[in-house]
Amino acid sequence: MLAQRQTAVEISQVVNKLATLIVDTPQSQSCDTWADGLKGIISNTPTEHGKAIAPEVCATLLRGLTHTSASARKNQVDADPQTVYNYEMMVLDTLKELLCKFGDDVQGELCVEFVVVL
Questions:
Q1: Helix 50-74 crosses helix 81-102 at what angle (to 10 degrees)?
Q2: How does pLDDT run across 78-100, given as a tens digit for each residue?
Q3: pLDDT of 57
Q4: Which terminal residue of the chain has fewer beta carbons within 10 Å of its beta carbon, N or C?
Q5: CA angle 27, 30, 33 (to 5 degrees)
Q6: What is the pLDDT of residue 19?
């Protein structure tokens, strides 16, 4: 796979961009595609690259969960609960993939933040 032939820095740039797109444009119809791409790259990335990609991607996805939850509560009239739920489940599924593969490479503070978000 492509991810196995790239350096940790190159993979990091791609996964960080995908995570940022997911978080910054949660209403986009492309969000599912970006999440699928991110999960695919994560699953094909060698475990030795975990320290280079996992902490920042985890932090970005957690930011998306907290931002979306806060926005939904703030704008309850405008927020479609099913849309918010689907987005949060997509982000959690992506986080699950990341943590299953690179959980040991994520710093403790991020894990605590993850628990607090839930």
A1: 160
A2: 567 888 888 889 999 999 999 99
A3: 94
A4: C
A5: 130
A6: 95
Long-range contacts (CB closer than 8 Å, 24 or more residues apart) made by 21-29: 22/60, 22/61, 22/64, 22/90, 22/91, 22/94, 23/60, 23/61, 23/63, 23/64, 23/67, 23/91, 26/64, 26/68, 26/87, 27/83
Comparing CA positions, the residue from 4, 2, 101, 6 lying closest to residue 51 is 101
Tokens of 42: 């994560």
Q: Give the separation between CA 19 and CA 26, rounded to whole angstroms.
A: 11
State which residues of the chain have pLDDT below 70: 1-5, 68-79, 108-118
Q: CA quadruple 88, 90, 93, 97: dihedral positive or negative?
A: negative
- Number of neighbours of residue 41 by Cβ within 10 angstroms: 20
CA distance 34 to 14: 11
Nearest by Cα to 63 from 108, 99, 24, 12: 24
Q: Which pLDDT value is given to residue 115?
A: 52
* Token duo for residue 2: 């492509």
